[in-house]
């Protein structure tokens, strides 16, 4: 499946894959798609540099991208400690009680609390960009609206197109005004941060709003038939995130989580603020339920909520406490029912696309 | 656009239109689609008989259908008065206060309170069926799950296929077991009663679940591109409801409501229990907001809520009290920005379908 955009980017299939795992990104790129590595979990520049070096060695000079999280609005001089100090004690107590209720052990002495807020701080994201520009990154994506103007300019000087996620036509237009090159229209059914407009409605709306910018459709896409639907809606490609979580190349911290993903139905996700403070679709668990319960103190705004629950999530994952164990994932989790290689997934996507097209052509005339 | 199902039903385009307006149903059928008249607003058999007679005269012997609301579970001997008595006084007071706050006048002496619960009672629905079977109805649809087994049998004896709406694969399978012939998979973004699963995910899931039954996709469909997407997902046609509300053949009670629909964006709807007690997507208004407010007593379960607010809705519509004025409608309301004839809409749908197909074929290979 080739579109104007996929031709321009020199890839074989208009399939873009967002993933926190270098092995998945590399495998997708080698399979003819466009692997995009999520940088948010990297605290240190060295770690990211090492993984990008690895990507360079495993992508046969084919294109890959990097997804950073960089708010366009900069807050000067605010440290992680400043943000920590803004968290009410009642919220900390609720986290402690919920973990105790489910018997979640403490982390062993010296083990890190896992994901911290650091990846969300502009300073860190800028450091990641320095690393990115020293590698042959072919696409820069930004999950939190458009990146700051100077970053867009810097990417363009390197000849790197910039993509940004949007959950509404208005957001997409704002991105366009900020000079970005590709809009990822992310529908309600997607995993992670989402708005309320479903992909079926959002995609054509965004395509119209930012014409002639190319649009990728995200949310609810896990089969070739769904890619055909996305292209029918005017997208120039599909942006998939959830589907890779159960590939053999993915490195989830927990086997129990993989089993939960394989068993989950499309109705087993929830849009919850429990993870970051903004609505993000994820597996529904006893943890997300706890934040909806009558006794819940309510979630805090971003970035406080993420900082509040970071260590708790690390403990839940570390000890595989099943009722609480979750991950951001979209409604297509219902169709993720076997572990396969990225190549097998891509073969399946292209086959499904061809068969949808054949079926559609039979309806014409 | 022709599918196995549309050929079988003898229509030119696989476009099914649900509408409370006989003039819309007739125009869609004449334009080569399949008009389906909603029967819920008919209190008396005579009124329905008169409108079906009119349809017979205005459809050139082409097929049309009837949509009834008949719960499969029967509650014997329960009258409307019994249900009325179950409504708490606090809820009645909240309705009165909200109407007063917005200065909504009383209905003139002798004017009816509009839509009542009657259409929801099995007795009434059965009376409507008697009328339907005296007319050349070519499809019987049921909005509340599968109709009772004897009704399915009776329809089949008349050679009439039965369709039922489903918001999940599990519901769809239950319908299949009840002997229905067509499943309408209605996604989250649809107007009226909806579940949480978006059309992009729901359609292929239902197609797989009830194979080989034909599936119509509903929710988020208002253009030919979206119909192409639905067929790519495996649907044998599209079921559209919202789009007809702003056609010139529609007879909304209020011009102000038409203006609101034309002005609304895709983000201006809400899934609310305010109308019937079950989540139904509709325009977001001061009325739906009132049921979400801190001082709200909360909505009542179906059918109590519908009965509670029936007269209030009639008054709001009668006097066009703009802040409160709403209607069930899907997220595609954002694309409904001009009043056109049903024929012009259908022409647009078929053109959009062809252009989506051309675009898709260019991506193949």
UniProtKB/TrEMBL annotation, chains A, B:
Ranges annotated as spanning the membrane: none
UniProt entry tagged with the keyword Magnesium: no
Signal peptide region: none
Matching InterPro entries: Aldolase_TIM, NMO
Keywords for the protein's UniProt record, in alphabetical order: Dioxygenase, Flavoprotein, FMN, Oxidoreductase
One term of GO molecular function: nitronate monooxygenase activity
Any Pfam family: NMO
Domain of life of the native organism: Bacteria
Name of the protein in question: Putative 2-nitropropane dioxygenase
Organism per entry: Streptomyces cacaoi
């Amino acid at each position: 499946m080739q579109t104007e955009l996929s031709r321009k980017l020199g890839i074989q299939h208009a399939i873009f894959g967002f993933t926190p795992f270098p092995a998945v990104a590399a495998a997708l790129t080698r399979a003819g798609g466009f692997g995009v590595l999520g940088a948010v979990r990297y605290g240190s520049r060295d770690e990211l540099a090492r993984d990008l070096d690895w990507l360079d060695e495993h992508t046969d000079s084919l294109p890959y991208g990097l997804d950073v999280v960089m708010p366009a609005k900069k807050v000067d001089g605010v440290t992680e400690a400043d943000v920590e100090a803004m968290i009410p004690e009642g919220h900390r107590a609720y986290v402690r009680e919920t973990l105790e209720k489910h018997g979640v052990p403490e982390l062993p002495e010296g083990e890190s609390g896992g994901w911290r807020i650091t990846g969300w701080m502009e300073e860190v994201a800028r450091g990641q960009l320095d690393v990115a520009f020293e590698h042959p990154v072919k696409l820069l994506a930004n999950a939190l609206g458009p990146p700051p103007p100077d970053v867009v300019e810097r990417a363009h000087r390197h000849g790197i197109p910039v993509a940004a996620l949007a959950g509404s036509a208005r957001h997409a237009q704002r991105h366009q005004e900020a000079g970005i090159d590709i809009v990822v229209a992310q529908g309600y059914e997607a995993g992670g941060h989402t708005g309320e407009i479903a992909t079926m409605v959002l995609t054509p709306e965004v395509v119209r709003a930012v014409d002639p910018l190319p649009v990728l459709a995200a949310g609810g896409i896990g089969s070739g038939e769904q890619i055909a639907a996305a292209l029918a809606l005017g997208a120039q490609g599909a942006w998939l995130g959830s589907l890779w979580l159960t590939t053999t190349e993915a490195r989830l911290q927990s086997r129990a989580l993989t089993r939960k993903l394989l068993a989950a139905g499309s109705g087993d996700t929830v849009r919850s603020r429990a993870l970051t403070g903004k609505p993000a679709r994820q597996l529904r668990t006893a943890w997300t339920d706890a934040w909806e319960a009558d006794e819940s103190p309510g979630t805090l705004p971003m970035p406080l909520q993420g900082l509040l629950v970071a260590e708790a999530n690390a403990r839940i994952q570390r000890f595989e406490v099943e009722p609480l164990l979750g991950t951001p994932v979209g409604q297509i989790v219902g169709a993720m029912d076997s572990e396969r290689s990225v190549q097998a997934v891509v073969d399946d996507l292209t086959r499904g696309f061809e068969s949808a097209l054949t079926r559609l052509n039979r309806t014409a005339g």
